[in-house]
Amino acid sequence: MRHHLILRVVTKLLIGSIMIFALYVQFHGDYSPGGGFQAGVIMAVGFIIYGVVFSLEDVQRVFPPWLVHKLAALGVLLYAGTGIVSLFLGYSYLDYTALSPHHPVHGQHYGIILVELGVGITVTGVMVTIYYAFTSRTPIMDDEAW
Amino acid sequence: MTAFAVVRTQSLFATAMLSGVFSLLSALLLVTLDAVDVAFTEAAVGAGISTVLMLGTLALTSRFERPPSHSPVIPLFVVLVTGAALVYGTLDMPNFGDPNAPAQTHVAPDYIGRSPHEIDVPNIVTAILASYRGFDTLGETAVVFTAGVGVLLLISGLRRRRRKEKEDV
Amino acid sequence: MVEEAVRDWEFFLGHMNYWLFIVLMMTGFYIVVAKGNLVKKIVGLNIFQTSVFMFYISIGKVEGGTAPIFPVDMNIDPAVVYSNPLPHVLILTAIVVGVATTSLGLALIVRIREEYGSIEEDEILKIEKEIALQEIRLHSEVMGERG
């Protein structure tokens, strides 16, 4: 898609706002519709758009595959780790009261933010991984066939 | 409806596009059903990611479907019988939007009533997702992760092997 | 008499949503059963899945209710009716899991295409049969030599 100038300029403008919107959805999920799952998907869309309009090499230079794989695993770890922390603090698994024993409501807030962050990271990682996996195969037919 | 167009068309490219349109329309329907969170997800996932994935698959396989070799009468019969059975099942269901339906009277009022002072998060969906049903969500996250690993195992392993074969030659 | 007609009409309208989703679900089911193309089958499964999602969400809808989000200042008006948030949570996660499993299916299709050179069900079955026959022939030759 080298020759589509308008497409490339508009994409450059859009990617920034897509990412900021993803972060907004991620951290504002307590107050408005949104949360980790949606934010993860939107974030992944930001990277995928870059890959579609420019090229796979470009996007992999920004967001290398090894980092994506690590992030996907890190998200699950963050989620499960939150549960383990509350276990060690003497509460039951995933009981967020443990994070702030004197103020259970605050503990819930911290817990929800951590867990949503874990979900978001995993979903981003997995979606981008899947995209990389599909596009890094050499296509059987070329672009002109479309 | 778009779904019927999907049945008829033979071009797989059109199918992929129509399925994107289909999920966008269903997102609109979900908004009217008060499920803003869900509509949000459906719009982002259905219209964004799955269309890209479908196109990626089509680029790796073929674009057109061959005309079916067997007659559609038997599948149509099976589908009609199943549909009739399901319609028969709905006759006992409560009316749409009925506040006294069983689904509305058990845990839901409990969640709506308790979450303001226990969790103090305005979005009840987030509160249930991350706190009351944290185990569920942990499981779902693990499933998503496993699916990602599965895709990696399925399609990125072969390339390395091929390169090795080439080196051997 | 009029009362009965009104009740019938309410029953009809109240169950319309279920019937619509059943029609949608059966459309998806028909694609899965009748079409030979594997990509088409995946799209059919997706339609099936979406109809189940909408069925769940429509169960959670309460007459006159609004989206289950409190005002930001947490001054909750007890008169406001909220729709049931539980199905929303379940479906929200199900959608994302659904797209992940769909991509797994598509990855399988890509691999099948590479092995068999086709994504039509009947062609794949034909190729499978040939391979099986060849193997049987090979085995019987080996056994024959031994005997």
Quick synopsis:
Chain C: It is a multi-pass membrane protein. The complex is a heterotrimer of chains A (146), B (169) and C (147). By secondary structure, chain B is mainly α.
Report on this model:
With 146 residues, chain A is mainly α. In chain A, 71% of the residues lie in helices and 0% in strands. Chain A has one domain (5-145). Chain A contains five helices and no strands. Chain B is an all-alpha fold. Chain B has a domain at 1-66. Chain B has helices spanning 2-8, 12-32, 36-60, 73-90, 102-105, 107-118, 124-132, 134-155, 157-168. In chain B, helix 1 packs antiparallel against helix 2, helix 2 packs antiparallel against helix 3 and helix 6 crosses helix 7. The model of chain B has no long low-confidence stretch (mean pLDDT 73). Chain C is elongated. The model of chain C has no long low-confidence stretch (mean pLDDT 79). At the B-C interface, helix 1, helix 2, helix 3, helix 4 and helix 6 of B face helix 1, helix 2 and helix 3 of C. Chain C: The chain crosses the membrane at residues 16-33, 42-59, 89-110. Chain C: It is a multi-pass membrane protein. Chain C: This is Cation:proton antiporter subunit C. Chain C: Pfam families: Oxidored_q2. Chain C: It is found in: Cell membrane.
Low-confidence stretches of chain A: 141-146
Structural class of chain A: mainly alpha
Helical content of chain A, roughly? over 70%
Summarize the helix and strand pattern of chain B as letters: HHHHHHHHH
Please state the CA-atom Rg of chain B, rounded to the nearest Å: 23 Å
Fold topology:
The complex is a heterotrimer of chains A (146), B (169) and C (147).
Chain A: H1 5-27, H2 36-53, H3 56-62, H4 65-88, H5 104-135
Chain B: H1 2-8, H2 12-32, H3 36-60, H4 73-90, H5 102-105, H6 107-118, H7 124-132, H8 134-155, H9 157-168
Helix pairs in contact in B: 1-2, 2-3, 6-7, 7-8
Chain C: H1 2-34, H2 38-60, H3 85-116, H4 121-146
Name a few traits of the molecule.
heterotrimer; A: 146 residues; mainly alpha; 0% strand; elongated; disordered C terminus; B: 169 residues
